[in-house]
Amino acid sequence: MATLVFRLKYVPDEEADDIRQLLADHDIDFYETSAGRWQVSMAGLWVKDKEQAIKARELIREDQMARAQTMRPISFGQWILGYLQHARQNPAEAFFTLIAIILILGLSIMPFTLWL
């Protein structure tokens, strides 16, 4: 049975390419699945052999730790800009997320605003 070794959702293309190259450099046979047209499937890199999957996860973990050392925190302005770019690329997801936040916030605050 195949083992998921790396999820590709919200992963930048350059990082995904680096992970693919890392697995290829270490002769780990993998295949890739996409999220599909409606973004409901699991986008990821999969390995069929259990031993290779363990090796792949270890290599990816080391790579991610090295990436974490070179990353720096983003500012609030960069976060807003990133969210706006994401909203432009995925308008339906951004709209429904905003509606869900407003709905949950409204339901959470409503008991405190009613004067009986």
Summed up:
With 116 residues, the chain is mainly α. It has helices spanning 13-25, 50-70, 76-89, 91-113; strands at 3-7, 31-33, 44-47.
Describe the structure.
The protein has helices spanning 13-25, 50-70, 76-89, 91-113; strands spanning 3-7, 31-33, 44-47. By secondary structure, it is mostly helical. A three-stranded antiparallel β-sheet has the order 1-3-2. The model has no long low-confidence stretch (mean pLDDT 92).
Q: Can you tell me the overall shape?
A: elongated
* Uncertain stretches of 5 or more adjacent residues: none
Between the first and last Cα atoms, what is the distance in angstroms? 60 Å
Structural class by secondary-structure content: mainly alpha
